[in-house]
Amino acid sequence: MAARTRFAPDRGLTSRMAVTMFLIGLLYVVFVGALIVLMEGAWPLVLVLAGGLFILQFWFSDKIAAYSMGAREVTPEQAPELHGAVDRLCALADMPKPRVAIAHSDIPNAFATGRNQKKSLVCATTGLMRRLEPAELEGVLAHELSHVAHRDVVVMTIASFLGVLAGTITRVALWSGMMRGGRGGDGNNNTAILVLLVPLVSAVVYVISFLLTRLLSRYRELTADRAAALLTGRPSALAAALTKVTGDMARIPSRDLRQAEPFNAFYFAPAFSSRQSLSRVLSSHPTLEQRLEQLSRISTQLGYS
């Protein structure tokens, strides 16, 4: 829920975030418990590793995500138009101003990260700023700021890294088990069991966490579109930005799109071309048609048609 801001709240999003965080936390506990059972004597290592990585994930996952996506913080002197747009939107929404960053990429996109409003960051790519008109850019930035206000960006930042944590813990735990198994006795049999079971548990955890984040991500994108359109009062500008970004995405080289694809859950629009659309069942975003239809309904509600 958007606390202490003028962004339109969404109880459906709040309940979905609560359920997702509960299931993600439960999944993490079950995963660590399964490793402890499978690793037997290595349980202290598993506990220390799991606890340490969880703390690192909570405090630094937003910085890791921003760095991975090429975000570089800029001052008002370096990017006056971008800062000016964020200043106006934050004043309109009555919320703290986040840090502002630019990613030097031709892919037209934007994203937000941060574990709370005071520690948040909003980033736009150079490709986005070059393609959009000022009103369209403000619509996209309002969309990203609503993620911060609704705090769903925190849930996505934490949840998206569970698969990475599962893989890291699995590799370390498996290596430890193999080292112990090579010292004789029944070690070879134990190692064979670990080689089969531990990666299987990790794969199951990754698949479940992936599905949970995708379900939440599609809903939160529609919520952000709605909140941004209502805050700015210009749903048509956001619709125009969506149309431009989605259309231009097909012109971006496939190599660049593949590099950006792992971060789709964070982006304003998914980084794939129309030729790569597939069934969208596992997409991080609703379809363009769904988003435009919602914005059209909001325009009607606001009396613009």
Account of the 3D structure:
The chain has 305 residues and is mainly alpha-helical. It has one domain. It has 11 helices and 4 strands; from the N terminus they run ααβαβββαααααααα. A 4-stranded mixed β-sheet has the order 1-2-4-3, sandwiched between helices. Helix 2 runs antiparallel to helix 7 and helix 3 crosses helix 5. It is elongated and about 65 Å long. About 2% of the residues have low confidence. Its EC number is 3.4.24.-.
Q: What is the helix/strand order?
A: HHEHEEEHHHHHHHH
The amount of beta strand, in percent, is 5-15%
The helix tally amounts to 11
For the biggest sheet, the summary is: 4 strands, mixed
Report the structural category. mainly alpha
Integer count of domains: 1
Number of separate strands: 4
Helix content: 55-70%
Which oligomeric state applies? single chain
Distance between the termini: 29 Å
C-alpha Rg, in Å? 21 Å
Strand order of the largest sheet: 1-2-4-3
Outline? elongated
User: What would the average pLDDT be, to the nearest integer?
Assistant: 81
Which residue ranges are poorly predicted, with pLDDT under 50 across at least 5 consecutive positions? 274-278
GO molecular function: metallopeptidase activity
InterPro entries: HtpX_protease, Pept_M48_protease_HtpX, Peptidase_M48
EC number: 3.4.24.-
Keywords: Cell membrane, Hydrolase, Membrane, Metal-binding, Metalloprotease, Protease, Transmembrane, Transmembrane helix, Zinc
